[in-house]
Structures are given as C-alpha cells and as structure tokens.
B12-binding domain-containing radical SAM protein
Amino acid sequence: MIRDVPHILFVNPWIHDFAAYDFWAKPLGLLSLAAIARRHGFQVSYIDCLDRFHARAPLSDPRARFGRGPYLKTPIAKPPGLENIPRTFSRYGIKKRWLSRDLDEMPRPDLIMVTSMMTYWYPGVFETISAVREKFPGVPTALGGVFATLLHEFAVEKSGADRVFAGEGEKALLEIIGRETGFSVSPRFDFDDPDAFPRPAFDLQNAVGYVPLRTSSGCPFSCPYCASGILNPRRFFKSPGAVVDEIAFWRRTWGVEDFVFYDDALLADSGTHAAPLFETIIQKTPGLRFHTPNALHVREITDKIAALMFRAGFKTLRLGFETAERDGPGRFDGKTSSAELVSAVSSLKKAGFEAKQAGVYLLAGMPGLDMDSVFRSIEVVKAAGATPIPAYYSPIPRTRMWEKAQKASRYDLEADPVFSNNALLPCRTENFSWEDLTRLKNRCKT
C-alpha cells in the first residue's frame, strides 16, 4: 500500500438487538463515502461487522432469497433496564475474534470512519469503535450516520469517537480527511450534480448479492413519526440514464440481478422521474428484479405506474398506509386514505402483481393508536386484496411525534436511546401484553 497517501478505513458496525435481519440492508451512505475517497486518490479499506459472507462464516449463496438472509448472531447481556424483556438479546454480525484478526491483518489506517443507523443500536456502534481503537490506538476515529445526526450530543459525549459529524457526509468528507490527516485535495467532480458521483463501493464487500439504489433524495411529505426531512433535507433526482448505467455496470461486472430502491419517495413526481426511469429500465436493462423495502406512496400508484413497475421487473412492493384511522374524525395525516389504498391495489393487480407481492405497512405501538385500531387496519388491507405487514413504531428524536412519544412511553426515552427499540413497543398502553404481538402477527397471516 502506498504510504504517502492516507489510508482510510470505513467500518459498518455490529448491531445489538433482540432481532435483526438482512432485509436488503447495506450501508449505502458509508460505501458512497468510500467511493468518493477512492475517486480522490485515497487508499480505502472496508470492514463490515455485519458481513454474512465473511471468509470464516458458513458458506451460503448471496443470491438466495433475492439476496436477503439472516445475520450471524451471538447472545449477549441485555442493556440495563431491559433485563425483564422475555426475549434473547444478541450481537448481530461477525464474531469478535474474526474482527480482531481482520484488523491485525490490515495496514495501520490514518483515519477510521464509522457509520451508525438506528438510534437504539448505539451499543453495537460503541463496541465497534472500542474494538477498532484498541487495535489502532492514536488513529483518529470519526462517527457519522443516522444516530450521530439525530443524537449528536449524546454521540459526542459517549461514543468514544474523536469526531462526530451530523448530516450528509458527502460534502464534508474531504474536509474531514484533510483536517484529520493533513492531506488536502480539491474536488474532482461537481458535488451539486447527483449524476457526477461515483458508484458506491459495493465491490469492497466479500459478496455482492444485491445492489441498493438511491435515485432521489428527500421526501415531499412531513410525517410526524419520520426523520427523513432531518436526515435528507435536500430534494434531488438522478437522471434515468445515470441510474440505468449504474444498474448495467453491476449486472455486467458482478452478475447482479436484484436491485433495491432506497428512495424515501420513489414515486413522488412520477411524471418527471419514476415513469421515465422505469421506461428506461424496460428498454435498456430488461430481465432484472427490483424491490422497494421503503414504503411507496399509495396515492402515486396509478394504472400506468403499476404497469410500468410490472414490466420493469418489480418483485417486492411495500406500500405505506400506516393506519386506517386517518379516515375518521381523528385523522392521523393526509397522506392517503382507505379508498386510495383500494385503488392502488386494484391497479397493481390489474398490472399482474399478486397479493403476496404487495405488502402494506401498518404502524403498531404508536401513541394514540390502540391495538383495536391496528386490527381494524389489518382488515382494511385484506379487504383491498393486499398483505398487511406490521411495522412496530420506534420513537425518533427530533421528529414532531417525539414529545408525544416521551409522554406515552413507560420508559425514559430521553435518558437512554436503547429504550426506543421498536421490539419493546415502548409507547404501548398499559393493558397491552406480549401475547398481543403474537395475536397481531397471526391476524396478519390468516
């Protein structure tokens, strides 16, 4: 490795939780930063503590189940305050000794950059930072990502990182590298042009079973429970040509067949973005599979959009409905209605989609929505001809619902983010029992 050019180590941390699954979950932001660093001539390495295809892990097919699959897991002690939760708590990802060996075999970096996701996953982030710093004492460590943005002061005080940066890291990356390594470079592309960015460095992974795509950023809606507007305040779109070029590259070089849209609002402004994009995919990259784990906006699904998605090769659709309670006098928000859900599902079925492909997210455990409300929403989804999927509410700091969540929770959410874990249903009512979760899951299946 060339030592006069800084070596930057990018790290995707462990998850500590009651449950975790690779449902098309990759650190797109972190690998985008790695690609930008590489474009500017820096030496780049990558450690994925969630790597399902680590060299020491049991052999498995990265293409199975459209690329999804379970993480390795190791049972660990529950965090203080959660000792009475009747579920097993685990470290998800590679074994600690595997990480230790990987770091031993790596040249000493000049800068370590760690990402973060869910706020309540911070214990895994902290453990990762501690393990990496133990191997490389004196190397500056920078922490970014969702947790670092939403709970910046908490992260600064407790993470163990030398630097914690909030918000979008792309424009700040070169400044961070220059400040921490003393090696400054000028931008080699226009950071204001979405099409100019290099492809995220998925090739740094041990296997590329699927590729996430972000064709747009931001969301025109402002749902009270969502932090999208905080995390991605800018609205921008990539051109259909640039997106398809990226798809074609991963298909050609790595044989990738599954692509996953990470957009917060893929179908918004569909006449100028989604529709031309799907038409270009149909023309230039046919025969692939596409998935939308992030909720699609029901109101935007017309006969035309549904037909284009079917022809383009969409296999897994997730629709955002949240609750049918918005139809009554205590409206939840104005994003959609039961009638619009029925219309959207009708368009999807007319295009050729089956009910099992069209999953509809329903929020459970939200302040002001009791279990009877969730069960009523399940019946609305079933009557529409789609598949209900419970999405357990996690209170998110700085959202408009945060204060209401704090008042409703049986935990002190402000004291410790670990209490925001959606597996706890932290804002559940007092008469809620763990048996209700089983009853909810069974009602969705039958």
